[in-house]
Design goal:
Elements (H helix, E strand, L loop, with lengths): L1 E6 L2 E7 H10 L7 E4 L4 H17 L12 H6 L3 H18 L3 E4 L1
Antiparallel strand pairs: 1-2, 1-4, 3-4
């Protein structure tokens, strides 16, 4: 399943379901088949995403099993910052044009 984020201010953004669900939850929304971040809610959503990125980057580099990872493994991993960057850009453009961002699966 895929999450498809849409806005009249930006191109569509598609994410795999686990990542989309995680990001929707970070923004304080309930993951589901569809949803909306209203123009008024966008600043809070951006702040929540940026705070989650900062929190992740403050953690020591460990894998899913709790083992320390090498610098190369860390560099090769897709970080939250990389996953949310396109969505944050979509949210910023949407805020500038005062339009909502919606998603569907």
């Amino acid at each position: 399943m895929l999450y498809k984020f849409k806005s009249r201010a930006a191109a569509d953004l598609i994410m795999l379901e686990p990542q989309g669900r995680h990001i929707v939850t970070i923004m304080g929304k309930t993951p589901g088949a569809s949803g909306i971040v209203t123009a008024a809610q966008i600043p809070g959503a951006i702040a929540a995403l940026e705070a989650a990125v900062a929190a992740e980057e403050a953690l020591p580099p460990v894998d899913e099993a709790g083992e320390e990872v090498t610098e190369q493994e860390r560099a090769e991993a897709v970080r939250l910052r990389q996953r949310v960057a396109p969505l944050i850009e979509m949210l910023r453009r949407s805020a500038a044009e005062q339009v909502d961002v919606v998603w569907g699966v």
